[in-house]
Amino acid sequence: MPELGKYAVDVSMAYGASFALLLGLVLVSWRQSKAMKRALDAAEARRDA
Amino acid sequence: MSIWTYANPQKFMGLTGKVLPVLVVLTAVSLFVGLGWGFFLTPEDARQGATVKIIFLHVPAALMAINAWLMMLVASLIWLIRRHPVSALCAKAAAPVGAVLTLVALITGAIWGKPMWGTYWVWDPRLTSFLILFLFYLGYMALWSALEDRETASDLTSITCLVGTVFAVLSRYAVKFWDQGLHQGTSVPVATGGRTISDVFFYPLVLSMLGFGLLFVTLVLIRARTAIRAERLGALLRREGGGNA
Which of A28, A47, A48, B240 has its CA 20 to 30 A from that of B136? Predict the structure, then answer.
């Protein structure tokens, strides 16, 4: 870990909040994509049956 | 081959399906190297101390928050002029990504502002226009959610996007327009090329900006593909419902 001195809390908060928001966005986008693909595949399978 | 070929959803899905794995790797590498370099390997600034490390999040997020809206503007104009549904869905897909990037810029700016300016928030022209841009993102997404008919939603959100562009431009040039407030001017002016930060911070910053740019493109493509699949699913379900009736 780098030496952050008296600003350790500020810098950690900035990185922590940013990573949480960006990771959340990535996870939500990924899960929605997977769920939609599954639902569409199922509907297409029903249509082709 | 014309670029309008990719306005066809099938062509768009085919191309983006091939490009996405490469984009995911490039995004992960550039973010890992850029942010890792910035956080672990840069020294403290003489005046700002270790808070200078926030620049590797704040500047790329702010840059992409504005560029995301400008991308939405281009996609909205394409919808309004040429009526390509994929462009409207790309604008829709970009909004949550832009909103999160704007929020990251606002939060990191506030955290950085406390030790440097003595306050988390001030009604400075750039900060205020950025907050309004964030509210426009929320309004834009709310409008998409509120309207069931995709064509109507595309029309109305495109107009909202045109209006919101004023604040996207203002948030970029507020410091120049009003020449007041606490927020400094840009450290890396693209137009003039003259920068006010040293190389030791500049290179990891450029990598972080590249990483945020790639992250934006990757997420927009993933979300646009989801939106196109949702359209297709809706059409199939309507047909199923019609068949059963």
Answer: A28
State whether residue B52 sits within 8 Å of chain A by CB. Answer: no
Q: Do A33 and B223 touch (CB under 8 A)?
A: yes
Closest alpha carbon within chain A to B225: A33
Residues of chain B with C-beta less than 8 angstroms from the C-beta of A4: 50, 53
Which residues 6+ apart lie within 8 Å of A20 measured at CB?
A: none
Q: Could you give the domains of chain B?
A: 18-41+50-244 (1.20.120)
Each residue's pLDDT tens digit in chain A (49 positions)? 788 889 999 999 999 999 999 999 999 999 999 999 999 999 999 988 8
pTM for the predicted model, two decimal places: 0.92
ipTM above 0.90, yes or no: yes
Q: CB-based contacts of B59: which residues, under 8 Å, 6+ apart?
A: B187, B188, B205, B208, B209
